[in-house]
Amino acid sequence: MKFIATKSANYQLFARDPEIQYFPDGRTRQIRPALVAEFGDASSGEISGAEGLIMNDVHGQYGSGRAADIRGFFFDSEEAQERHGWTDEERQFVEQRLQEVSVPDGDVKVWTKPVPVPPWPTYDKMHHNAIPTFAEQSGMAGAALDYELRTKNRPDLVKKLRELADLEVGEGALTAA
Question: Where do the domains of the chain lie?
């Protein structure tokens, strides 16, 4: 299951704290390790944000103010299970804990694959032979190709749309100068 941390960079959620045994002489022994969902790996050198100058809208010049550009990260519980050697029960426990904290406008959200939007409202109702003609006439061959590849992926239609999209790109390059 995939999750996204939207408000914080390098967000960590401790699903389970480590269980540690303390001895009178100061020694410790870890009985059970912590289960931590890590959104981004700070030790890998990933860039978790940046600092930039603020644009002065009135004069179109950069001002002296600075602004932070901080981005969140993804967490894939199955990939973490492989990396950390978690059991299926431990992975499910982490997923359950993440689902508990994933509330609207919260730090963590369950990631769902975006649903492709048709390039025009009647695309899915059209006969597949009519799509290339309409795409060519409307100049939407590239958008139609992208949608077709993400959804039905019909080989003959993809071939025709790819040819039309290549023509659109070629014509755009010729008329742009």
Answer: 2-110, 123-175
